[in-house]
Write a structure and sequence with these properties.
The structure is a single chain. The protein is mainly alpha-helical. The chain contains five helices and three strands, in the order ααββααβα. The chain is globular, with a radius of gyration of 25 Å.
């Protein structure tokens, strides 16, 4: 006759089972970190390579038509933030970009959403791209001017890092409006005190 499991074995088995189920329910952070790192690396390298190309092949102030009259390359050095905002506060933007990058790296392991990984990855890459300019370009460390070159008619001149930052913020807003949290779960709709959705039917 088979022996019944002891009292000590049952809790252990249940605990092991619940642990396994829990590990399956919560996605691991590894793949989301890879997505974030890949997006950040792409944005950063693309930004720095295009800036290197501009500095190497153009003179400051030069305008090169690309798709006239819609698009041209216009090489300027910008002491301000994205789209030439706040040109008198270069050092403040250097600190802000460093804090943004640090915050993303700190919270990166908590992300369980591919879309949030993309958004924060491009934000990190863009922030590091412009921060590199501020730290290592003229006129001085932390006060460097960012290389901008993408020009549209009646619009500010910007660069790839600016585009990555703005695109990530737009995606951030969309995910927030859709109620998708960084853990990958959709935030449930608010309910009234009696447990029914506002305006819901009795059916």
């Amino acid at each position: 006759m088979p022996e019944s499991p002891s009292a000590e074995e049952l809790p252990a088995g249940r605990k092991a089972g619940s642990s396994a189920a829990g590990s399956e329910a919560v996605p691991r952070s590894g793949k989301f970190l890879l997505i974030l790192a890949g997006c950040a690396a792409f944005a950063y390298l693309f930004d720095q390579l295009t800036k290197f190309w501009v500095v190497s092949t153009m003179t400051e102030g030069q305008v090169t038509p690309v798709l006239p009259p819609l698009l041209s390359w216009h090489f300027i050095r910008n002491p301000g933030a994205a789209f030439s905002i706040g040109e008198d506060f270069t050092w403040i933007f250097s600190i802000v970009m460093a804090l943004v990058a640090g915050a993303i790296l700190f919270y990166a392991r908590r992300i369980r959403s591919a879309w949030w990984s993309v958004a924060l990855g491009f934000l990190l890459g863009g922030a590091l791209g412009n921060l590199t300019d501020r730290l290592f370009r003229e006129p001085s460390f932390g006060m460097g001017h960012v290389v901008d070159f993408i020009a549209f008619p009646n619009f500010a001149i910007f660069n790839i890092a600016d585009s990555a930052i703005v695109g990530s913020v737009i995606l951030w807003c969309i995910l927030t409006l859709l109620g998708i949290g960084m853990d990958g779960r959709r935030v449930p709709a608010r309910r009234t005190g009696d447990g029914e959705d506002p305006g819901g039917s009795d059916a």
